[in-house]
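A reminder from the course coordinator: this example appears on the midterm review sheet, so study it carefully.

Given structure:
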Protein backbone atom coordinates (compact mmCIF):
# COMPACT_ATOMS: atom_id res chain seq x y z
CA UNK A 1 0.00 0.00 0.00
CA UNK A 2 2.83 2.38 0.90
CA UNK A 3 4.55 1.47 -2.36
CA UNK A 4 1.38 2.33 -4.32
CA UNK A 5 1.07 5.69 -2.54
CA UNK A 6 4.70 6.44 -3.40
CA UNK A 7 4.01 5.56 -7.05
CA UNK A 8 0.93 7.82 -7.07
CA UNK A 9 2.95 10.74 -5.65
CA UNK A 10 5.70 10.13 -8.20
CA UNK A 11 3.18 10.03 -11.06
CA UNK A 12 1.46 13.21 -9.83
CA UNK A 13 4.82 14.96 -9.72
CA UNK A 14 5.69 13.71 -13.22
CA UNK A 15 2.37 14.89 -14.66
CA UNK A 16 2.36 18.21 -12.80
CA UNK A 17 2.88 20.25 -15.98
CA UNK A 18 0.34 18.11 -17.85
CA UNK A 19 -2.43 17.96 -15.25
CA UNK A 20 -4.89 20.17 -17.16
CA UNK A 21 -4.24 18.28 -20.41
CA UNK A 22 -4.50 14.95 -18.54
CA UNK A 23 -7.93 15.84 -17.13
CA UNK A 24 -9.18 16.95 -20.55
CA UNK A 25 -7.80 13.76 -22.11
CA UNK A 26 -9.45 11.64 -19.42
CA UNK A 27 -12.86 13.03 -20.42
CA UNK A 28 -12.28 11.91 -24.00
CA UNK A 29 -10.86 8.48 -23.15
CA UNK A 30 -13.75 7.57 -20.81
CA UNK A 31 -16.32 8.78 -23.40
CA UNK A 32 -17.82 11.59 -21.34
CA UNK A 33 -19.72 12.67 -24.47
CA UNK A 34 -21.34 10.56 -27.15
CA UNK A 35 -19.01 11.63 -29.93
CA UNK A 36 -15.78 10.83 -28.05
CA UNK A 37 -15.44 7.17 -29.20
CA UNK A 38 -16.07 8.27 -32.80
CA UNK A 39 -13.34 10.92 -32.44
CA UNK A 40 -10.88 8.35 -31.05
CA UNK A 41 -11.54 5.87 -33.86
CA UNK A 42 -11.42 8.70 -36.42
CA UNK A 43 -8.09 9.98 -35.08
CA UNK A 44 -6.57 6.50 -35.13
CA UNK A 45 -7.88 5.90 -38.65
CA UNK A 46 -6.48 9.19 -40.00
CA UNK A 47 -3.08 8.49 -38.40
CA UNK A 48 -2.80 5.03 -39.93
CA UNK A 49 -4.15 6.28 -43.25
CA UNK A 50 -1.21 8.70 -43.39
CA UNK A 51 1.20 5.90 -42.48
CA UNK A 52 -0.29 3.71 -45.22
CA UNK A 53 -0.06 6.49 -47.84
CA UNK A 54 3.48 7.62 -46.90
CA UNK A 55 4.76 4.07 -46.25
CA UNK A 56 7.68 5.20 -44.02
CA UNK A 57 10.26 2.83 -42.54
CA UNK A 58 9.99 1.69 -38.91
CA UNK A 59 13.01 3.83 -38.01
CA UNK A 60 11.29 6.91 -39.47
CA UNK A 61 8.06 6.21 -37.57
CA UNK A 62 9.93 5.77 -34.27
CA UNK A 63 12.01 8.92 -34.88
CA UNK A 64 8.99 11.07 -35.79
CA UNK A 65 7.08 9.72 -32.79
CA UNK A 66 10.04 10.59 -30.53
CA UNK A 67 10.25 14.08 -32.04
CA UNK A 68 6.52 14.67 -31.48
CA UNK A 69 6.77 13.53 -27.84
CA UNK A 70 9.86 15.69 -27.22
CA UNK A 71 8.38 18.82 -28.82
CA UNK A 72 5.03 18.27 -27.08
CA UNK A 73 6.74 17.89 -23.71
CA UNK A 74 8.38 21.28 -24.23
CA UNK A 75 5.61 23.25 -25.99
CA UNK A 76 2.27 21.97 -24.66
CA UNK A 77 2.83 22.71 -20.92
CA UNK A 78 3.89 26.28 -21.82
CA UNK A 79 0.84 26.79 -24.04
CA UNK A 80 -1.47 25.14 -21.49
CA UNK A 81 -0.25 27.45 -18.70
CA UNK A 82 -1.40 30.47 -20.73
CA UNK A 83 -4.88 28.96 -21.28
CA UNK A 84 -5.35 27.35 -17.86
CA UNK A 85 -4.55 29.79 -15.06
CA UNK A 86 -3.24 28.30 -11.77
CA UNK A 87 -5.85 30.21 -9.76
CA UNK A 88 -8.59 28.31 -11.61
CA UNK A 89 -7.24 25.00 -10.31
CA UNK A 90 -9.77 23.99 -7.64
CA UNK A 91 -9.83 21.33 -4.92
CA UNK A 92 -12.34 19.35 -7.00
CA UNK A 93 -9.99 19.30 -9.97
CA UNK A 94 -7.11 18.30 -7.70
CA UNK A 95 -9.21 15.39 -6.44
CA UNK A 96 -10.01 14.35 -10.06
CA UNK A 97 -6.31 14.52 -10.91
CA UNK A 98 -5.42 12.36 -7.91
CA UNK A 99 -8.11 9.82 -8.89
CA UNK A 100 -6.69 9.70 -12.41
CA UNK A 101 -3.17 9.02 -11.10
CA UNK A 102 -4.52 6.42 -8.67
CA UNK A 103 -6.39 4.62 -11.48
CA UNK A 104 -3.27 4.55 -13.67
CA UNK A 105 -1.21 3.04 -10.84
CA UNK A 106 -3.96 0.50 -10.07
CA UNK A 107 -4.18 -0.57 -13.73
CA UNK A 108 -0.39 -1.00 -13.77
CA UNK A 109 -0.58 -3.10 -10.58
CA UNK A 110 -3.39 -5.20 -12.09
CA UNK A 111 -1.32 -5.92 -15.21
CA UNK A 112 1.71 -6.86 -13.11
CA UNK A 113 -0.45 -9.17 -10.94
CA UNK A 114 -1.96 -10.87 -14.02
CA UNK A 115 1.50 -11.41 -15.50
CA UNK A 116 2.91 -12.78 -12.22
CA UNK A 117 -0.06 -15.19 -11.89
CA UNK A 118 0.47 -16.41 -15.43
CA UNK A 119 4.21 -16.84 -14.93
CA UNK A 120 3.55 -18.60 -11.59
CA UNK A 121 1.75 -21.34 -13.55
CA UNK A 122 5.21 -22.46 -14.72
CA UNK A 123 5.86 -23.81 -11.22
CA UNK A 124 2.32 -24.65 -10.05
CA UNK A 125 0.86 -26.15 -13.26
CA UNK A 126 3.53 -26.68 -15.91
CA UNK A 127 1.23 -28.46 -18.39
CA UNK A 128 -1.36 -25.66 -18.39
CA UNK A 129 1.42 -23.05 -18.65
CA UNK A 130 2.98 -24.68 -21.72
CA UNK A 131 -0.40 -25.38 -23.36
CA UNK A 132 -1.50 -21.76 -22.93
CA UNK A 133 1.87 -20.40 -24.09
CA UNK A 134 2.15 -22.65 -27.14
CA UNK A 135 -1.50 -22.09 -28.18
CA UNK A 136 -1.22 -18.32 -27.65
CA UNK A 137 2.02 -17.99 -29.62
CA UNK A 138 0.67 -20.24 -32.38
CA UNK A 139 -2.46 -18.09 -32.73
CA UNK A 140 -0.33 -14.92 -32.79
CA UNK A 141 1.96 -16.45 -35.44
CA UNK A 142 -1.07 -17.37 -37.58
CA UNK A 143 -2.55 -13.88 -37.20
CA UNK A 144 0.82 -12.34 -38.11
CA UNK A 145 1.06 -14.46 -41.27
CA UNK A 146 -2.56 -13.82 -42.28
CA UNK A 147 -2.98 -10.08 -41.76
CA UNK A 148 -0.96 -7.03 -42.78
CA UNK A 149 1.35 -5.58 -40.09
CA UNK A 150 -0.03 -2.06 -40.45
CA UNK A 151 -3.60 -3.34 -40.15
CA UNK A 152 -2.69 -5.28 -36.99
CA UNK A 153 -1.06 -2.16 -35.52
CA UNK A 154 -4.19 -0.14 -36.40
CA UNK A 155 -6.49 -2.66 -34.70
CA UNK A 156 -4.25 -2.81 -31.61
CA UNK A 157 -3.90 0.98 -31.24
CA UNK A 158 -7.62 1.55 -31.82
CA UNK A 159 -8.48 -1.09 -29.22
CA UNK A 160 -6.07 0.45 -26.69
CA UNK A 161 -7.47 3.99 -27.09
CA UNK A 162 -11.02 2.63 -26.73
CA UNK A 163 -10.16 0.37 -23.76
CA UNK A 164 -10.51 2.99 -20.96
CA UNK A 165 -13.96 3.97 -22.26
CA UNK A 166 -15.07 0.35 -22.57
CA UNK A 167 -13.84 -0.32 -19.04
CA UNK A 168 -15.53 2.82 -17.65
CA UNK A 169 -18.86 2.04 -19.34
CA UNK A 170 -18.92 -1.61 -18.24
CA UNK A 171 -18.49 -3.09 -21.74
CA UNK A 172 -15.39 -5.10 -20.74
CA UNK A 173 -17.12 -6.64 -17.69
CA UNK A 174 -20.18 -7.57 -19.80
CA UNK A 175 -17.99 -9.20 -22.45
CA UNK A 176 -15.97 -11.03 -19.78
CA UNK A 177 -19.18 -12.28 -18.16
CA UNK A 178 -20.51 -13.47 -21.53
CA UNK A 179 -17.27 -15.32 -22.36
CA UNK A 180 -17.16 -16.86 -18.87
CA UNK A 181 -20.77 -18.08 -19.14
CA UNK A 182 -20.17 -19.39 -22.68
CA UNK A 183 -17.08 -21.36 -21.61
CA UNK A 184 -18.82 -22.70 -18.50
CA UNK A 185 -21.79 -23.88 -20.59
CA UNK A 186 -19.46 -25.38 -23.21
CA UNK A 187 -17.51 -27.31 -20.58
CA UNK A 188 -20.73 -28.45 -18.91
CA UNK A 189 -22.11 -29.79 -22.21
CA UNK A 190 -18.80 -31.45 -23.06
CA UNK A 191 -18.69 -33.13 -19.65
CA UNK A 192 -22.29 -34.34 -19.91
CA UNK A 193 -21.57 -35.69 -23.41
CA UNK A 194 -18.52 -37.61 -22.16
CA UNK A 195 -20.53 -38.99 -19.20
CA UNK A 196 -23.30 -40.07 -21.58
CA UNK A 197 -20.83 -41.85 -23.88
CA UNK A 198 -19.34 -43.68 -20.89
CA UNK A 199 -22.80 -44.87 -19.83
CA UNK A 200 -23.53 -46.12 -23.36
CA UNK A 201 -20.25 -48.06 -23.42
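Designed residues:
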Amino acid sequence: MADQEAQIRKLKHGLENWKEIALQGKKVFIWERQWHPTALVGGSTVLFMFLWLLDPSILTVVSVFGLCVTVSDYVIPSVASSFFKPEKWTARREKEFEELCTNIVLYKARLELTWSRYYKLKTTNRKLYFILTICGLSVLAWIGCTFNNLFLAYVLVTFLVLLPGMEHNGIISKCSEYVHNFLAEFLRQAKSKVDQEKKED
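Helices lie at 2-14, 19-29, 36-54, 58-83, 91-124, 126-146, 149-168, 171-200. The first helix runs from residue 2 to 14.
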